[in-house]
Write a structure and sequence with these properties.
By secondary structure, the protein is mainly α. The chain has one domain. 62% of the residues lie in helices and 2% in strands. The chain contains 13 helices and 2 strands. The chain has a two-stranded antiparallel ribbon. A hairpin with a 5-residue loop joins β1 and β2. α2 runs antiparallel to α6, α2 packs antiparallel against α9 and α6 runs antiparallel to α7.
Protein backbone atom coordinates (compact mmCIF):
# COMPACT_ATOMS: atom_id res chain seq x y z
CA UNK A 1 0.00 0.00 0.00
CA UNK A 2 1.10 3.56 -0.71
CA UNK A 3 1.07 5.15 2.73
CA UNK A 4 2.25 8.50 4.12
CA UNK A 5 5.87 7.32 4.19
CA UNK A 6 6.01 7.04 0.38
CA UNK A 7 7.05 9.68 -2.13
CA UNK A 8 3.94 8.92 -4.18
CA UNK A 9 1.75 9.93 -1.24
CA UNK A 10 3.81 13.06 -0.63
CA UNK A 11 3.61 14.38 -4.19
CA UNK A 12 0.74 12.85 -6.21
CA UNK A 13 -1.99 14.67 -4.28
CA UNK A 14 -0.37 18.10 -4.72
CA UNK A 15 -3.28 20.35 -5.72
CA UNK A 16 -1.03 22.27 -8.08
CA UNK A 17 -1.02 19.17 -10.27
CA UNK A 18 -4.51 20.13 -11.49
CA UNK A 19 -2.90 22.97 -13.43
CA UNK A 20 -0.80 20.36 -15.27
CA UNK A 21 -3.66 17.93 -15.94
CA UNK A 22 -3.60 18.56 -19.71
CA UNK A 23 -0.07 17.12 -19.97
CA UNK A 24 -0.76 13.48 -18.98
CA UNK A 25 -4.15 13.70 -20.67
CA UNK A 26 -2.60 14.62 -24.01
CA UNK A 27 0.15 12.02 -23.68
CA UNK A 28 -2.50 9.38 -23.04
CA UNK A 29 -4.62 10.57 -25.95
CA UNK A 30 -1.61 10.29 -28.29
CA UNK A 31 -1.85 6.51 -27.84
CA UNK A 32 -4.11 5.41 -30.74
CA UNK A 33 -6.12 2.99 -28.60
CA UNK A 34 -6.83 5.60 -25.92
CA UNK A 35 -7.69 8.18 -28.58
CA UNK A 36 -10.22 5.78 -30.09
CA UNK A 37 -11.68 4.92 -26.68
CA UNK A 38 -12.17 8.60 -25.88
CA UNK A 39 -13.85 9.29 -29.22
CA UNK A 40 -16.08 6.21 -29.25
CA UNK A 41 -16.95 5.53 -25.61
CA UNK A 42 -16.44 8.69 -23.56
CA UNK A 43 -18.36 11.89 -22.88
CA UNK A 44 -15.04 13.76 -23.02
CA UNK A 45 -16.08 15.95 -25.95
CA UNK A 46 -19.40 16.90 -24.34
CA UNK A 47 -17.79 18.26 -21.19
CA UNK A 48 -13.99 17.88 -21.14
CA UNK A 49 -13.37 19.49 -17.74
CA UNK A 50 -16.05 17.48 -16.03
CA UNK A 51 -14.52 14.31 -17.49
CA UNK A 52 -11.01 15.24 -16.33
CA UNK A 53 -12.08 16.25 -12.83
CA UNK A 54 -14.39 13.26 -12.47
CA UNK A 55 -11.61 10.86 -13.39
CA UNK A 56 -8.99 12.37 -11.09
CA UNK A 57 -10.76 11.38 -7.86
CA UNK A 58 -10.74 7.59 -8.29
CA UNK A 59 -7.18 7.59 -9.66
CA UNK A 60 -6.04 9.49 -6.56
CA UNK A 61 -8.15 7.15 -4.46
CA UNK A 62 -5.97 4.20 -5.43
CA UNK A 63 -3.17 5.98 -3.56
CA UNK A 64 -5.02 7.76 -0.75
CA UNK A 65 -8.05 5.60 0.14
CA UNK A 66 -6.06 3.53 2.63
CA UNK A 67 -5.54 -0.21 3.10
CA UNK A 68 -9.22 -0.93 3.71
CA UNK A 69 -10.52 0.38 0.38
CA UNK A 70 -7.64 1.26 -1.98
CA UNK A 71 -7.68 -2.14 -3.73
CA UNK A 72 -11.46 -1.88 -4.12
CA UNK A 73 -11.00 1.55 -5.68
CA UNK A 74 -8.34 0.13 -8.04
CA UNK A 75 -10.67 -2.71 -9.01
CA UNK A 76 -13.49 -0.25 -9.69
CA UNK A 77 -11.23 1.89 -11.91
CA UNK A 78 -10.09 -1.21 -13.82
CA UNK A 79 -13.62 -2.55 -14.29
CA UNK A 80 -14.84 0.71 -15.82
CA UNK A 81 -12.70 -0.21 -18.84
CA UNK A 82 -13.87 -3.80 -19.41
CA UNK A 83 -16.44 -3.03 -22.11
CA UNK A 84 -14.38 -0.38 -23.91
CA UNK A 85 -13.20 -1.84 -27.21
CA UNK A 86 -13.44 -1.34 -30.95
CA UNK A 87 -11.17 -0.27 -33.80
CA UNK A 88 -8.87 2.75 -33.80
CA UNK A 89 -8.50 5.38 -36.54
CA UNK A 90 -6.32 3.01 -38.57
CA UNK A 91 -8.73 0.08 -38.27
CA UNK A 92 -6.67 -1.75 -35.66
CA UNK A 93 -8.68 -3.53 -32.94
CA UNK A 94 -8.17 -2.28 -29.41
CA UNK A 95 -9.35 -2.95 -25.88
CA UNK A 96 -8.98 -0.47 -23.04
CA UNK A 97 -7.58 -3.22 -20.80
CA UNK A 98 -4.91 -4.28 -23.27
CA UNK A 99 -1.66 -4.33 -21.26
CA UNK A 100 0.19 -1.84 -23.47
CA UNK A 101 -2.58 0.80 -23.47
CA UNK A 102 -3.50 0.50 -19.80
CA UNK A 103 0.09 0.60 -18.62
CA UNK A 104 0.83 3.63 -20.79
CA UNK A 105 -1.95 5.54 -19.05
CA UNK A 106 -0.48 4.59 -15.68
CA UNK A 107 3.01 5.53 -16.84
CA UNK A 108 1.87 9.08 -17.65
CA UNK A 109 0.53 9.51 -14.10
CA UNK A 110 3.78 8.28 -12.56
CA UNK A 111 5.98 10.38 -14.85
CA UNK A 112 3.83 13.46 -14.28
CA UNK A 113 4.81 13.46 -10.60
CA UNK A 114 8.46 13.93 -11.57
CA UNK A 115 7.64 16.53 -14.24
CA UNK A 116 5.28 18.59 -12.06
CA UNK A 117 7.71 18.77 -9.16
CA UNK A 118 10.55 19.78 -11.50
CA UNK A 119 8.50 22.60 -13.04
CA UNK A 120 7.49 23.78 -9.58
CA UNK A 121 11.09 24.15 -8.44
CA UNK A 122 11.34 20.88 -6.54
CA UNK A 123 13.30 18.56 -8.84
CA UNK A 124 13.55 15.05 -7.44
CA UNK A 125 16.98 13.49 -7.10
CA UNK A 126 17.88 10.45 -9.14
CA UNK A 127 17.54 8.30 -6.01
CA UNK A 128 14.06 9.67 -5.32
CA UNK A 129 13.02 9.11 -8.93
CA UNK A 130 14.13 5.49 -8.66
CA UNK A 131 12.30 5.08 -5.35
CA UNK A 132 9.18 6.68 -6.83
CA UNK A 133 9.32 4.27 -9.75
CA UNK A 134 9.61 1.28 -7.40
CA UNK A 135 6.47 2.55 -5.67
CA UNK A 136 4.71 2.91 -9.03
CA UNK A 137 5.16 -0.81 -9.68
CA UNK A 138 3.25 -1.67 -6.51
CA UNK A 139 0.70 1.00 -7.40
CA UNK A 140 0.09 -0.57 -10.82
CA UNK A 141 -0.06 -4.07 -9.32
CA UNK A 142 -3.16 -3.03 -7.36
CA UNK A 143 -5.17 -2.98 -10.60
CA UNK A 144 -4.84 -6.76 -10.81
CA UNK A 145 -3.62 -6.83 -14.41
CA UNK A 146 -0.64 -8.57 -15.97
CA UNK A 147 2.70 -7.06 -15.05
CA UNK A 148 4.19 -8.00 -18.43
CA UNK A 149 4.52 -4.45 -19.83
CA UNK A 150 6.01 -3.01 -16.62
CA UNK A 151 9.74 -2.19 -16.93
CA UNK A 152 11.73 -3.80 -14.10
CA UNK A 153 13.53 -0.66 -12.92
CA UNK A 154 13.69 3.08 -13.52
CA UNK A 155 16.48 2.90 -16.12
CA UNK A 156 14.37 0.45 -18.13
CA UNK A 157 11.37 2.75 -17.72
CA UNK A 158 13.34 5.67 -19.17
CA UNK A 159 14.10 3.58 -22.26
CA UNK A 160 10.44 2.55 -22.49
CA UNK A 161 9.36 6.21 -22.19
CA UNK A 162 11.75 7.35 -24.93
CA UNK A 163 10.61 4.51 -27.23
CA UNK A 164 6.95 5.41 -26.71
CA UNK A 165 7.58 9.07 -27.51
CA UNK A 166 9.51 8.11 -30.63
CA UNK A 167 7.41 5.28 -32.03
CA UNK A 168 4.38 4.46 -29.90
CA UNK A 169 2.47 7.74 -30.01
CA UNK A 170 0.67 9.53 -32.82
CA UNK A 171 -0.78 12.98 -33.54
CA UNK A 172 -4.30 11.78 -32.80
CA UNK A 173 -7.58 13.64 -33.19
CA UNK A 174 -8.13 14.09 -29.45
CA UNK A 175 -4.57 15.24 -28.75
CA UNK A 176 -4.62 17.79 -31.57
CA UNK A 177 -8.11 18.98 -30.68
CA UNK A 178 -6.96 19.86 -27.18
CA UNK A 179 -4.91 22.75 -28.56
CA UNK A 180 -7.10 24.00 -31.42
CA UNK A 181 -9.68 25.71 -29.22
CA UNK A 182 -12.49 23.95 -31.09
CA UNK A 183 -13.73 21.88 -28.14
CA UNK A 184 -16.90 22.88 -26.35
CA UNK A 185 -16.22 23.97 -22.79
CA UNK A 186 -19.47 24.00 -20.80
CA UNK A 187 -19.32 24.48 -17.05
CA UNK A 188 -17.94 21.29 -15.48
CA UNK A 189 -20.62 21.40 -12.75
CA UNK A 190 -24.14 22.92 -12.74
CA UNK A 191 -23.34 25.18 -9.78
CA UNK A 192 -20.80 27.02 -11.99
CA UNK A 193 -23.22 27.75 -14.82
CA UNK A 194 -24.00 31.35 -15.69
CA UNK A 195 -21.87 34.26 -14.52
CA UNK A 196 -19.33 32.15 -12.55
CA UNK A 197 -18.45 30.14 -15.66
CA UNK A 198 -18.41 33.22 -17.88
CA UNK A 199 -15.69 34.52 -15.56
CA UNK A 200 -13.77 31.27 -15.22
CA UNK A 201 -14.07 29.89 -18.76
CA UNK A 202 -11.21 31.96 -20.28
CA UNK A 203 -8.95 30.74 -17.48
CA UNK A 204 -9.89 27.08 -18.03
CA UNK A 205 -9.66 27.46 -21.81
CA UNK A 206 -6.20 29.05 -21.99
CA UNK A 207 -4.01 28.54 -18.93
CA UNK A 208 -4.03 24.72 -18.61
CA UNK A 209 -3.56 24.25 -22.36
CA UNK A 210 -0.67 26.74 -22.31
CA UNK A 211 0.92 24.89 -19.37
CA UNK A 212 0.28 21.57 -21.10
CA UNK A 213 1.88 22.74 -24.35
CA UNK A 214 4.93 24.08 -22.54
CA UNK A 215 5.50 21.07 -20.30
CA UNK A 216 4.97 18.33 -22.87
CA UNK A 217 8.13 16.42 -23.77
CA UNK A 218 9.74 18.10 -26.78
CA UNK A 219 9.29 14.94 -28.88
CA UNK A 220 5.53 14.92 -28.23
CA UNK A 221 5.25 18.63 -28.95
CA UNK A 222 7.05 18.18 -32.27
CA UNK A 223 4.85 15.24 -33.21
CA UNK A 224 1.77 17.40 -32.63
CA UNK A 225 3.27 20.33 -34.56
CA UNK A 226 3.08 22.67 -31.57
CA UNK A 227 5.35 25.70 -31.34
CA UNK A 228 7.17 26.81 -28.21
CA UNK A 229 9.38 29.91 -28.11
CA UNK A 230 11.79 31.41 -25.61
CA UNK A 231 9.16 34.05 -24.87
CA UNK A 232 6.67 31.28 -24.14
CA UNK A 233 9.16 29.68 -21.75
CA UNK A 234 9.66 32.98 -19.90
CA UNK A 235 5.88 33.43 -19.66
CA UNK A 236 5.48 29.90 -18.30
CA UNK A 237 8.11 30.46 -15.62
CA UNK A 238 6.43 33.70 -14.62
CA UNK A 239 3.06 31.96 -14.43
CA UNK A 240 4.40 29.20 -12.20
CA UNK A 241 6.55 31.42 -9.97
CA UNK A 242 3.77 32.26 -7.47
CA UNK A 243 3.01 28.54 -7.11
CA UNK A 244 6.66 27.89 -6.33
CA UNK A 245 7.26 30.66 -3.82
CA UNK A 246 3.86 31.27 -2.27
CA UNK A 247 2.73 27.68 -1.77
CA UNK A 248 3.86 27.37 1.89
CA UNK A 249 1.54 30.28 2.73
CA UNK A 250 -1.54 28.44 1.42
CA UNK A 251 -3.63 26.65 4.12
CA UNK A 252 -2.67 22.98 4.22
CA UNK A 253 -6.07 21.61 3.24
CA UNK A 254 -5.96 23.70 0.05
CA UNK A 255 -2.53 22.33 -0.85
CA UNK A 256 -4.03 18.86 -1.40
CA UNK A 257 -6.52 17.50 -3.91
CA UNK A 258 -9.77 16.86 -1.95
CA UNK A 259 -9.49 13.06 -2.29
CA UNK A 260 -5.90 13.19 -1.08
CA UNK A 261 -6.79 15.53 1.80
CA UNK A 262 -9.34 13.00 3.03
CA UNK A 263 -6.54 10.43 3.22
CA UNK A 264 -4.17 12.86 4.91
CA UNK A 265 -6.72 13.65 7.63
CA UNK A 266 -7.54 9.97 8.11
CA UNK A 267 -3.88 9.04 8.61
CA UNK A 268 -3.31 12.00 10.95
CA UNK A 269 -6.23 10.88 13.11
CA UNK A 270 -4.97 7.30 13.09
CA UNK A 271 -1.51 8.41 14.18
CA UNK A 272 -3.01 10.52 16.97
CA UNK A 273 -4.89 7.47 18.28
CA UNK A 274 -1.72 5.37 18.14
CA UNK A 275 0.28 8.03 19.97
CA UNK A 276 -2.29 8.35 22.74
CA UNK A 277 -2.41 4.55 23.10
CA UNK A 278 1.33 4.20 23.72
CA UNK A 279 1.91 7.43 25.70
CA UNK A 280 2.91 6.76 29.32
CA UNK A 281 0.48 7.66 32.09
CA UNK A 282 2.29 10.59 33.72
CA UNK A 283 0.02 10.35 36.76
CA UNK A 284 1.38 6.94 37.77
CA UNK A 285 4.70 6.43 39.56
CA UNK A 286 7.56 5.17 37.47
Amino acid sequence: MLGPDTLTWRHFGDARGLLFVIRPGVLQAMHPAIDAALRQHSDFFENPWNRLLRSSGPILGVVYDGPATAEQTAGWVRDQHRSIKGKDASGRPYHALSPEAYYWAHATFFESIISVQAHLGNPLSRLDQERLYDESIGWYEMYGLTMRPVPPDYAAFERYWADMLADGLEATEVALGTFTGEMRLPAPYPLLEGLPWMTLRPLFARVPTFVGRGTLPAAAREKLGLSWSKADEVALRGLLAPLRHGWPLVPERLRWHPRAWTGVRREAARNAVRSSAVAPDMRSPA
